[in-house]
Write a structure and sequence with these properties.
Protein name: Methylated-DNA--protein-cysteine methyltransferase
CATH topology of the largest domain: Arc Repressor Mutant, subunit A
Mean pLDDT: 87
Shape: globular
Strand order of the largest sheet: 3-2-1-4
Number of domains: 2
Largest sheet: 4 strands, mixed
Oligomer: single chain
Number of helices: 5
Distance between the termini: 32 Å
Strand content: 5-15%
Number of strands: 6
GO biological process, one term: methylation
Order of helices and strands: EEEEHHEHHEH
Radius of gyration: 16 Å
Catalytic activity: a 4-O-methyl-thymidine in DNA + L-cysteinyl-[protein] = a thymidine in DNA + S-methyl-L-cysteinyl-[protein]; a 6-O-methyl-2'-deoxyguanosine in DNA + L-cysteinyl-[protein] = S-methyl-L-cysteinyl-[protein] + a 2'-deoxyguanosine in DNA
Subcellular location: Cytoplasm
CATH architecture of the largest domain: Orthogonal Bundle
Organism: Streptomyces nitrosporeus
Low-confidence stretches: none
Structural class: alpha/beta
Length: about 170
């Protein structure tokens, strides 16, 4: 199916300090935010026609976030995944700005203490990076572990949210 015939899907690309971000809407609701070179990035033909109209508020909130003026997004989201993935993503939304959790902590919160690996897999399939803050999840030892957008971006996002002076976003 070509990009111009994907029913209900639209996309646009916005600039960010972490490189271009592809925003995808399904029936006017944000369903994807993908970085360049991101692991598990869907095929572009699934993004639909290019149309910036559904993304005005998303772009405004992203700009405010990158300017350090917004710490919590308030956007409707269409998160397409399994029930377990959606439960993990819902927990990601509860991690406050500037804070982190481990995969194990998330698994315990979900009532499945032995599921830290499954939590990690669901985290890696998050379709709306940054807004659904999968970058706020660390390994059990507190170290950086996988990030679909790359560990450098994860490290920079975390440092930015902690207010580290040298982490002021600059174009990637």
């Amino acid at each position: 199916m070509s990009a111009t015939h994907t029913p209900g899907r639209r996309h646009t690309v916005v600039d960010s300090p972490y490189g271009p971000l592809t925003l995808v809407a399904s029936d006017g609701v944000l369903a994807g935010l993908y970085m360049t070179g991101q692991r598990h990035r869907p095929d572009e033909e699934t993004f639909g026609e290019e149309d910036p109209r559904p993304f005005g508020e998303t772009a405004r909130q992203l700009d405010a976030y990158f300017a350090g003026e917004l710490t919590e997004f308030d956007l409707p989201l269409h998160l397409d995944g399994t029930p377990f993935q959606r439960a993990v993503w819902a927990e990601l939304l509860r991690i406050p700005y500037g804070e982190t959790r481990s995969y194990g902590e998330l698994a315990r919160t979900l009532g499945s203490p032995g599921a830290s690996r499954a939590v990690g897999l669901a985290n890696g399939r998050n379709p709306v990076g940054i807004i659904v803050p999968c970058h706020r999840v660390l390994g059990a030892s507190g170290g950086l572990t996988g990030y679909g957008g790359g560990l450098d971006r994860k490290q920079r996002l975390l440092a930015f949210e902690r207010g580290e002076e040298d982490a002021v976003p600059a174009l990637f």
